[in-house]
Amino acid sequence: xxxxxxxxxxxxxxxxxxxxxxxxxxxxxxxxxxxxxxxxxxxxxxxxxxxxxxxxxxxxxxxxxxxxxxxxxxxxxxxxxxxxxxxxxxxxxxxxxxxxxxxxxxxxxxxxxxxxxxxxxxxxxxxxxxxxxxxxxxxxxxxxxxxxxxxxxxxxxxxxxx
Length: 162
Fold this sequence. Notes:
mainly alpha; 2 domains; Leucine-rich Repeat Variant; elongated
């Protein structure tokens, strides 16, 4: 079955098709499915979510062309979707520079500590091209969340002299 069919099946109203597609993608991850898998990490069905996360854990960097869609997912109501969107943007690295503003907003305001932490990590993966996030990272170093503060400090170091 080709990747486009698997992606279509991830969006099916039929839970059995979503489960099957997510399982197939977990067994043979394909970066072309990155955005759909991130969405599926917030699926109503637990098995779909589990298979989608398994696929995302094995997936490499998504295509730079997916950066805009992933940045939009940073506002999704589902925590796991926001977490995986930030993770995937970090995997893109410098190519995700257009998402720095969205990641900075997540870093400043997301209610979930794990999502804020992932946003700090993702910004750090972008290095110097993420210089506009410096203020948000600096604020994050002052938080009581020890892990977030550490990730923000590390990200600031990766920004260098930008």
